Amino acid sequence: MKKSGVLGFIISSIFLAGCAGTTTNLGQIGKSGNYESSQKTGNYTALAQNLKKNQKDDLLWYLDAGLISRYAQDTNATIYFFDKSEDKIKQYDKEVLAGTLLANAGAILTNDTFMDYRPKIYEGIMVNTYKGLSFMDKGDMSNARIEFNRALERQRRAKEFFAKEIKQEKKKIEAQEAQKIKKKKLNVAQVQKVSSNDNTKDAIEKRYSNLFAFKPYPDFVNPFSSYMAGLFFISVHDYAKATDILKETYGMIKSNEAGADYVKRDLKYAIKASSSLNSSSDEHFAWVIFENGEGPSKKENRFDIPLFLVTNRLSYAGIALPTFQENQAAYSYLTIYDGNKSVRTKKIASMDKIIKTEFKKRFPAVMTRAITRTVAQSLMQYELNRQGGLIGLIGAVYQGFMNRADTRQWNTLPKNFQIARIALSSPKLSIVSPDGRRNIELIVDTDKNHIVLIRIPKHNSKEIVYEVSF
Hints:
Elements: H1 3-17, H2 33-41, H3 45-53, H4 59-71, H5 75-98, H6 121-138, H7 141-180, H8 188-195, H9 198-209, H10 223-235, H11 239-253, H12 260-274, E1 285-292, E2 297-304, E3 318-325, E4 335-338, E5 341-344, E6 346-350, H13 351-387, H14 390-402, E7 416-423, E8 428-432, E9 439-443, E10 450-456, E11 464-469
Parallel strand pairs: 1-10
Antiparallel strand pairs: 1-7, 2-3, 4-5, 4-8, 6-7, 8-9, 10-11
Helix pairs in contact: 1-14, 3-4, 4-5, 5-6, 6-7, 6-10, 7-10, 7-13, 8-13, 10-11, 11-12, 13-14
């Protein structure tokens, strides 16, 4: 490669690196004054309207736009943005199933942020879940049924889909490695050995041991999505299907989450209703769903590698890998009061756990790409150092600059989901935080059942309340 060509590639790549992975990620709003202000006041309307004016054709942007529009209680915009999200996800699914998933050839000499963002399985499940809830808000139970069935179907085929996705990913990595390192003027095998030696692996495993120290749910399932599907089928009096879904949900969490006993109680309710000739009852309930806190933040872990042990023509090499930092819950629980009766919410699903479970499964491929990239970029640095002068130094600076992890993700999801159910005897329902400072009062029809969803992102955030009756 000529010096002028190398310099041009390096300069343009460094310039593009400033934009890669961030220009269309609406999740950055989570750190901006507008979003923080909206959380505190509960007024997302202006922010949501701004999204419509500045729409970007990007999956992460659509995902965050969909949830922010939901927080603004703009149901039509919520469905629109989640429809756009699903279009992107379906296109990716189609490529994986057809075996035509393309790799970004330049990513091996840059980093993963230069690749198009690839949807995660949990994202598709949550898109269909939120669309189902949004159609329920509109009273469109036909479309709500479609969305909840889609969420369940995504969970059913997730394991097989993931296996196909990872198989293609492995082939792409091998093809890239063969293409970029074919000359082998540097002892690539030696670099590979140092990059993945016991010391490097031990350092990585030590940093990730706590991240992976949790009891996961079964592969790719989301107990919240399953539970909400079961509750939906109760609301449309399809008790047989609700029974099957709630039975599965209970099996997912019976040894994991405190709210399993609440799911078991709802399962008994569905079984009893399905066996009754008359499904109507004089007793009515309020189901309260608490979307609590903020999901984990994705961060970067950097590992420097002593490649001077291999050759003195290399000044720097390193691996950058993504990791997670958990955020705080808004509250440990909420208490629901109806007259003299009260009940506390309990957790049935952790978004932290769902996200990290899938990340753990993807981590070997992410790490393989990072090591392959280190080898390829080390080879380029080696060749530049052979030419001497300033260009050799630029090669080392370039590799250090490009040692970045891909920290893009859907940033506006809750930390966890909690549920409770209370029998209605009074038209006034009070929902109170543990410190007593937050008291949400609702007027309900005691002749109907109600589903109340409450979203509180932070301790000092204004709550967002949705209510559906049936």
